[in-house]
Write a structure and sequence with these properties.
The protein is globular. It has 298 residues and is α+β, with helices and mostly antiparallel strands. The strands form three sheets. Strands 2-11-7-13-5-4-3 form a seven-stranded antiparallel beta sheet. A four-stranded antiparallel beta sheet has the order 6-12-8-10. Strands 1-9 form a two-stranded antiparallel ribbon. Strand 3 and strand 4 form a beta hairpin.
Length: 298
């Protein structure tokens, strides 16, 4: 457990006060040397620094993408219905998420350790990296539920013990991400502000939050303030495109009532120097499939 003193030293307190607060970020966004050669050019790094994300067009070829949906189906079929890595939609029996996909599938393991991803993460984070979390998120046609606005870092800091904002996510489209089928939305520039949330975290909160999160959700006033300041970006693109975004970006997605299902694979890279400590919320750590505590570089 994290001591009271350690929690007090955190520059990003949350779930401890009766009112929300918007706090300044004290960490860099680009940790690496901007002048060093790398797969992201200067304009891409500047866009990431300013907005909190950058689009990676045609990251994968059509040939690479075409077999991945079937591989997800194979993984889902191999898991017992009560396997915690398998998350079911709260109002249906459809699959919402599959966690630790890189450990369940050699195909996804090879993809998520590919230099096209890893070298970009190293360039931004200025360190060797490891996979903190991986998952597939599905939004089935007609029934895909929304993901509420949230900062991943808030959860990773409070519930997992990630010390600083030295991590990022990559969302790779496995099907077309359209304007109307519940695609990822990001509040531009929100990564430069930490929204401190209200509400005490219950034990084993992850069991409920993976299906429908209610604790660690920012207040509407703070979301409105961030949206007015930077606007909302909707991350669209064909299968094989991707979005790389900062761990503290405020993001979410609408439900999908269209006939067009949406499927993305997410991977989170954390700097090896930013390995998890005890959770800053004072509770026991979440399971390994949500937050690896074995920082082996990729």
């Amino acid at each position: 457990m994290t001591s009271t003193a350690a929690r007090a030293r955190s520059p990003y307190p949350s779930r401890t006060a009766s009112r929300p607060a918007v706090l300044p970020r004290v960490d860099p966004v680009i940790w690496g040397d901007r002048t060093a050669p790398g797969p992201l050019d200067a304009a891409s790094l500047e866009h990431y620094d300013t907005n909190g994300f950058v689009s990676l067009d045609a990251l994968l070829t059509d040939h690479e993408v075409e077999s991945l949906p079937a591989e997800i189906d194979r993984v889902v079929a191999s898991l017992a219905p009560d396997d915690e890595r398998l998350v079911i939609e709260p109002e249906s029996n459809q699959v919402r998420s599959v966690f630790a996909i890189h450990e369940l599938s050699p195909t996804f393991s090879a993809l998520l350790t590919d230099p096209r991803l890893v070298e970009r993460a190293r360039q931004v984070l200025g360190d060797d990296v490891y996979i903190h979390q991986s998952r597939v998120n599905r939004k089935p046609g007609f029934h895909g539920k929304e993901f509420s606005w949230h900062s991943d870092f808030e959860t990773w800091h409070i519930e997992d013990g990630m010390p600083r904002m030295r991590a990022l996510s990559v969302s790779i489209a496995l099907s077309e991400n359209r304007i109307d089928n519940g695609s990822l939305m990001i509040l531009r520039g929100s990564h430069r502000h930490f929204v401190s949330c209200v509400g005490e975290t219950p034990e084993d909160h992850y069991r409920a939050s993976l299906r429908s999160q209610e604790i660690g959700v920012p207040d509407e006033g703070s979301i409105g303030e961030l949206a007015r300041a930077g606007g909302i970006a909707t991350c669209l693109g064909p299968a094989g495109s991707a979005t790389m975004f900062d761990a503290n970006c405020m993001h979410g997605s609408n439900g999908n009532i269209t006939p067009y299902g949406r499927s993305n694979v997410f991977v989170v890279y954390n700097a090896v120097s930013n390995a998890l400590t005890d959770p800053f919320g004072g509770l026991a750590p979440r399971p390994e499939f949500l937050a690896t505590r074995r920082p082996v570089g990729t």
